[in-house]
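Reposting from the mailing list since nobody answered there.

I have sequence plus structure tokens for a pair of proteins and want to know whether others read the tokens the same way I do. The first protein:
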Amino acid sequence: MNGKNGIMKKLQRIHQSSGKHWVGNGFPVRSVFDYNGLGRELSPFLLLDYAAPHPFPPGSEKRGVGAHPHKGFETVTVAYQGELEHRDSSGGGGKIGPGDVQWMTAGNGIVHEEFHSAEFTRRGGPLQMVQLWVNLRAKDKSAKPGYQTLLKGQIPNVPLPDEAGTVRVIAGAYAGKKGPAQTFTPINLWDLDLKAGKSAELPFPDGHTTTFLVLNGEVKVNGEKTAGEGDLAIFERTGDRITVAARTDTRLLVMDGEPIPEPIVGHGPFVMNSRAEIQQAFEDYQLGKMGELD
């Protein structure tokens, strides 16, 4: 099937995420994929956890996950409902609410914590978010840790043709508008809002890994199969575009990136290129070389 100017990326399959589990006491998530499974095919993307809307009653106890380490990749957290507070050993931190994104580079090692904000805990309400892990090339796994707070107001919202909806460009570019995230390798990360009955053709680089998660609604993909809430559509790397047609108002998290052709060896919070490097990461953490939180 040919697009207007090239070859359509074929839909490889629609993957349905697994059952829900809790991360700490604040994040009821579905593991959409991880580095021991689909994450091996979806380079540079290693892991995707999706916290579908979940109501939290007003409370006073801290909800979230306490200090823990990471090394060898980046974590990207997109908040849709609710508020999170983050602190890390690089001195990074901040609060994110609906529409905000935090992009943390673990690099050569970081310790961080993630909790519901004090105000959101007190008030209660629905929490909806995703966390994506993005791999780093071997040469970048020793990068200095860092943190980017990308507030909603900094993230461009680009209209789709024919008033079909909007593309929110977190990383990469769409229609000439660039997202604010600084990335080590070429990545497009977009929130796509598509109106019921409308369709869009989305351009991507040939050879890139392209996939999207349906956050709500239902879309027909490349005129073939339907994907609903929580489904992950995975495409072949060959080709330079896909089409989506919304049956209802729909939001997609679109992930597209240049693959990293290197070994993936992961254990818990560390993703490196060899077993020996994993062992070293555990030793570095135990020796306090990844820093600590006050």
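The second protein, same order (residues first, tokens after):
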Amino acid sequence: MEIGKVPEAVLKRSVFRKLTVKRPEVLVHAGVGEDCSVLEAGDGEVFVLSTDPITGTANDIGKLAFHITANDIASSGAELVGILLTIIFPPGSTEEDLKEIMDDVTSLAARYQVEILGGHTEVSPVVNQTLVSVTGVGKARRDKVVTTGGLKPGQELVVTKWVGLEGTSILAGEYASELKERLPGELVDTACGFDRYLSVIPEAAVAAGAGVSAMHDVTEGGIFGALWEMAASSGVGLTVDLKKIPIRQETIEICEVFDINPYMLISSGSMLIGTDHGSLLVEKLQGAGIHSAVVGYATEGNDRVIVNGDEQRFLEPPKTDELFRARWPE
């Protein structure tokens, strides 16, 4: 494809033809020349919006871009209605590259009944790898919206699935052959498949139905970053037992190879939840087939403490994600 806007003929056959989901809330759908979509909200409902780009990898970026924004919307207790999709390709990209991204995004959109409302596609010399950015639009009852900052002292903290899933999947996929020289091939293959866990829509639905007070999907900065952000947003302290944070052995071993901290690794697929009844929520999640664990509780004040046996460390504001530090050891 040449530099500039993707041609209309390519858009029609490789983008618009794939847009099969049409939501009743959408009054103006995606189309050539349509720069805006129009949505209608019902009485007592609010729209919830979120946006994120994918910059940490060039592999499976369509899937990752969808999940990250869908997870943000789900964490608010809202239903994702539609997304706006921006794709910027470097020179030398092909229509097949566009089709691959659209196939990944539209398959997930169909699974979750999400309409692709519009977006932008172009080829530009200012990027050296494909950039995908997704803006999500969700809807919720005004009185059912859940925020990151709703945690209160005394409430328990629940973490779903396992931390580090996204980062592990990315590293295992990008360095599969090298990792198999150091680790069992079955372990690496299993880690590559962690991308099937990246959606938190199921656990968000269970948690919202249980009446939780705070939800935050665990993304850049890992679980340590998510804990800090929830505590800071809520104005509370934390006490968290490191040994109770659920983590897969595959993540631990791959992070050891790269000498990075798995608890500070991008972790889409895991959700941090604040609730009055942690054990009850864990039971409800287990009933839905979702692994989870109570890892700690909120406290008065501003001390955010991670306990590991007899040792303690204080959390700090999140810095650069460990994924960006990962380099194959010489």
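Reply #1 (J.P.):
I read it the same way you do. The two ends are 37 Å apart (CA to CA).
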